[in-house]
Specification:
Layout: E1 2-7, E2 13-17, H1 22-31, E3 39-42, H2 48-59, E4 63-67, E5 70-74, E6 82-83, H3 85-88, H4 96-105, E7 107-110, H5 124-132, E8 136-140, E9 143-147, E10 154-156, H6 162-172, E11 178-182, H7 188-199, E12 203-205, E13 211-215, E14 224-226, H8 231-243, E15 247-251, H9 262-267, E16 271-275, E17 278-282, E18 293-294, H10 306-313, E19 318-323, H11 332-339, E20 344-346, E21 350-355, E22 363-365, H12 369-381, E23 385-389, H13 391-394, H14 401-406, E24 411-417, E25 422-424, H15 442-447
Helix pairs in contact: 1-2, 1-4, 1-7, 4-6, 5-6, 6-7, 8-10, 8-12, 10-12, 11-12
Length: 448
């Protein structure tokens, strides 16, 4: 079992190069299946969510090579493939393969997706948008199966789901006719997927708005594309600097949209600004409590920063309230912060923080990606030593978090725990290739 060992109390100061965006990369990896030619991606984050999705794609015949942060993909030999529980259960991004494989092969199937335990995260909206593209959609005990060439039409989303919007886009770009998506998610990562598809030959209007118009094309071509920096990682590292009273500059931030995040940090009494390709946070003065902060779809405060903001506000003298309106079970941070001396509690929707107390080191456990990052933040601000278990969740979205934060003064290391001894090791991401050649699974063949 592994954990992250942290000695708290050090002020973070210096520069960090921001990694590529996880939430932009995953849908673009799925989109590569639609391209009739090689795709080259730059600034690709080397994180386990990316490697897990690449592994799933390799099982369907997609070739890939990740060298540093340059990713080469070729889906020329891809085949229809049923993504079973082992593949679908590792990353929520796998659900986007439904729209991508449907758009190319007119058939797709997968077990119900996994990811972090932060709520039900049903895929009913994904099925709804595919049905509205007039394909046969069947939800069975062993997964979801879709068949037929998508045909343009009117797609209406009752809630601006990012994943459902992306699945609709992936299925519509090579559909017959024109598709209009109403109530589309406006997150920057959705716009990034649109721009990638446009560069590959897709015809999309309304990028960045809640109404998208897609005119289907017969093919998409291969391209080279540079992925943007990760806005949630940026927010996490800025908030980490704030918790330690630090002064941190983030590089490689050109085009990274921080709407909803900067405003919340400033309300908490922090000085944060950007210049050129850099963002900077100076934690001068006291942290201020935030009377009411609600998570909501873009451009509001993002749910993916809720846990980190909760950790930060434990140091603000006074009462703060954060209401979670996106996921019904995203409160894993509360009990773990209590172990570190924080006065926090929650009901079914809101987190109540009575801040101003010093945190102390403790052994805590992450149950999801963002809770893990927030516990690292709290450990760096606490007195004494902390151990954060569940580091595999953090590896899903943060590239070499120990090495990155150590560059600006953090005392932390990834540690392997054995029965008789512990051993520090260099942070490594899993690398896997699907070595056995596989054809379309029996489950998908049966449906087809």
């Amino acid at each position: 079992m592994s954990y992250i060992s942290i000695i708290g109390g050090n002020r973070l100061e210096g520069e960090i190069s921001l990694q590529g965006s996880k939430n932009a990369t995953l849908p673009i990896l799925a989109a590569c299946v639609l391209c009739d030619g090689p795709v080259e991606l730059f600034n690709c984050p080397d994180i386990s969510d990316v490697r897990d999705l690449l592994y799933a794609l390799s099982c369907a015949g997609v070739k890939s090579k990740l060298t540093g942060h340059r990713l080469e993909l070729d889906g020329s030999d891809a085949v229809p493939f049923f993504f079973g529980p082992e593949l679908a259960g590792k990353t929520r991004g796998g659900v986007l393969l439904l729209g991508a494989f449907l758009g190319r092969f007119f058939e797709a199937g997968m077990a119900y997706p996994g990811g972090c335990v932060i709520g039900a995260r049903p895929i009913d909206l994904h099925c709804k948008v595919l049905k509205e593209l007039r394909v046969i959609t069947e939800e069975r005990e062993d997964g979801v199966f879709v068949k037929g060439r998508p045909r343009g039409g009117k797609v209406v989303l009752p809630y601006p789901s990012v994943g459902a919007t992306e699945n609709a886009l992936l299925a519509a770009v090579r559909a017959e006719g024109t598709t209009k998506i109403y109530g589309a998610a406006r997150e920057p990562e959705v716009a990034e997927l649109c721009r990638f598809l446009q560069k590959a030959g897709a015809k999309i209007e309304g990028v960045g708005t809640s109404v998208l118009r897609i005119e289907g094309v017969s093919r998409l071509h291969g391209i080279s594309y540079t992925l943007p920096g990760d806005r949630i990682v940026a927010g996490t590292y800025l908030a980490t600097a704030a918790m330690t009273g630090g002064d941190v500059i983030l590089r490689n931030t050109t085009g990274v949209c921080m709407k909803g995040i900067f405003e919340s940090l400033r309300v908490a009494g922090l000085t944060v600004y950007r210049t050129g390709d850099a963002m900077r946070l100076r934690a001068s003065g006291k942290r201020l409590p935030v009377k009411m902060l609600k998570t909501a779809p873009f451009p509001a405060f993002p749910t993916d920063m809720q846990s980190q903001m909760t950790a930060l506000l434990t140091l603000a003298a006074g009462e703060s309230v954060i209401c979670e309106t996106v996921f019904e079970s995203r409160f894993g941070i509360v009990g773990e912060l209590q172990k570190m001396g924080a006065d926090v509690s929650c009901d079914k929707q809101c987190i109540f923080i009575r801040g101003g107390k010093k945190l102390h080191g403790a052994t805590v456990t992450a149950t999801d990606l963002r809770t893990g990052a927030a516990l690292v933040m709290a450990g760096l601000a606490a007195e004494g030593e902390s151990r954060v278990y569940g580091s595999e969740f953090i590896a899903r979205g943060y590239e070499n978090i120990c090495g990155t934060l150590s560059l600006v003064g953090a005392k932390m290391a990834q540690t392997e725990e054995y029965e008789e001894k512990t051993e520090n090791r260099v942070w490594q991401q899993k690398d896997g290739n699907c070595e056995t050649e596989q054809d379309t699974s029996s489950a998908l063949r049966q449906f087809v």
